[in-house]
Amino acid sequence: MRRTARDPRIPVPLLVPATVGVAFLVLPLVGLLVRAPWSSLGEQLSAPGVGEALRLSLVSATVATLLSLVLGVPLAWVLARSRIRGRSVLRALVTVPLVLPPVVGGVALFLVFGRQGIVGSWLDDAFGITIPFTTTAVVLSQTFVAMPFLVVSVEGALRAADARFEDVAATLGADRWTTFRRVTLPLVAPGVAAGAVLCWARALGEFGATITFAGNFPGTTQTMPLAVYLALQREPEAAIVLSLVLLAVSLGTLLLLRDRWLGRAAG
């Protein structure tokens, strides 16, 4: 039976809401570009505090991503490859930050790492370490909200990877750790890279948990999103410029992931 060619035309009942959806998502970005003070862009970017906020955002997001890799990749392996009981419950708990309001995450971090928290009180009494309202608090906040993106991406890559290569390695005498390092990790490297990029971008844009748990202190905890919020109240043009920087970073992130996403879609 001969297959008929697929009609490339978009049905009107789909075209209209799709067009409205595109306009709804794109017009705010266009408005940001149109209203940007391009003539004073350099002056705004060189203003006091902007460089500090950008540097802190880049450094803290990078550290949060590295921490997420150390903790998240093994966690993703447990969710995808192990047979421990309660994996579905564990997966639900791990992915809760994806849907949890970031401010609630900040409160939860406070209850654990604050001076009167479950872990924070012990750190304060035993070592004199106080975490809230420090740069460490920024990193913890970003890690809490961003690591689930890495875990979900790596778990999906592990589930899609051909487990026969791991079985062959096992029959040749390789133990589980060697198999993970020499076989599994290279197989899922693109998924790990994509998850790391998503994690870094999410950490860079984190606001709610950071302002709740770390505060908004210039040079110490004031990241770019917090600087945008503060500038919007005092100098809207500066807020637009800072928003443009974050927009550029977001677009760069999508371009880095383009080959992975669009390549698979085309295939």
UniProtKB/TrEMBL annotation:
Pfam families: BPD_transp_1. Residues 54-257 form the ABC transmembrane type-1 domain. It is a multi-pass membrane protein. The keyword Cell membrane applies. One of its GO terms (molecular function) is molybdate ion transmembrane transporter activity. The chain crosses the membrane at residues 12-34, 54-80, 92-114, 126-152, 183-203, 238-257. Keywords: Cell membrane, Membrane, Molybdenum, Transmembrane, Transmembrane helix, Transport. InterPro entries: MetI-like (IPR000515), MetI-like_sf (IPR035906), ModB_ABC (IPR011867), NifC_ABC_porter (IPR006469). It is found in: Cell membrane. Its main location: membrane. CDD domains: TM_PBP2 (cd06261). One of its GO terms (cellular component) is plasma membrane. Belongs to the binding-protein-dependent transport system permease family. CysTW subfamily. Part of the binding-protein-dependent transport system for molybdenum; probably responsible for the translocation of the substrate across the membrane. PANTHER family: MOLYBDENUM TRANSPORT SYSTEM PERMEASE PROTEIN MODB. This is Molybdenum transport system permease. It comes from Blastococcus tunisiensis. The lineage of its organism: Bacteria, Bacillati, Actinomycetota, Actinomycetes, Geodermatophilales.
